[in-house]
Design goal:
Methylamine_util_MauE, about 150 residues, transmembrane, transmembrane helix, membrane, Methylamine utilisation protein MauE, mainly alpha, 6 helices
Length: about 150
């Protein structure tokens, strides 16, 4: 139980760092981020909306992961968003000639292959966290997992 709790909380902290960093790098470089989104063949018509909506969602996810009552939902939503990002990346790489990078901070220094592996790694981390939740929460109290 204690090892599972440590693994779960480590995954939660990694996602909090990921979402916080991603959101604030997009906010601080808003015009660049919006311009890169506008170059995407799938997002060009909604770049303004996505440039505001996406960092807001990332902040909400980071906040959800901080509080006990919303941690599980935060992990599930993180899994969904990372899956969407990964499918989007694969789709853009497969079907587009020009591949704009709308990533912020250090992520923009990754190759596309590295970025896909990075995303898949976080998808797998979310799945591990949800498996731990299923094993320890359904049938037990969630507070035992998060408080020890």
């Amino acid at each position: 139980m204690k090892v599972q709790r440590i693994i779960f909380e480590t995954i939660v902290v990694l996602f909090i760092c990921l979402w916080g960093y991603a959101a604030f790098s997009k906010i601080f470089e808003y015009e660049i981020f919006k311009g890169q989104l506008a170059k995407s063949p799938l997002l060009e018509s909604t770049a303004g909306f996505v440039a505001i909506f996406l960092p807001a969602i990332e902040i909400v996810l980071a906040l959800m992961l901080i509080f006990d009552r919303t941690k599980c939902a935060g992990i599930l939503a993180s899994l969904a968003l990372m899956t969407i990002f990964t499918v989007y990346l694969i789709g853009i790489l497969t079907f587009s000639k020009d591949v704009p990078c709308s990533c912020g901070g250090i992520l923009q220094n990754m190759t596309w292959t590295q970025h896909i592996y990075f995303n898949i790694g976080f998808v797998l981390l979310a799945i591990v966290a949800l498996i731990i939740v299923k094993k320890t929460i359904w049938g037990q109290n969630f507070r035992r997992l998060v408080r020890g």
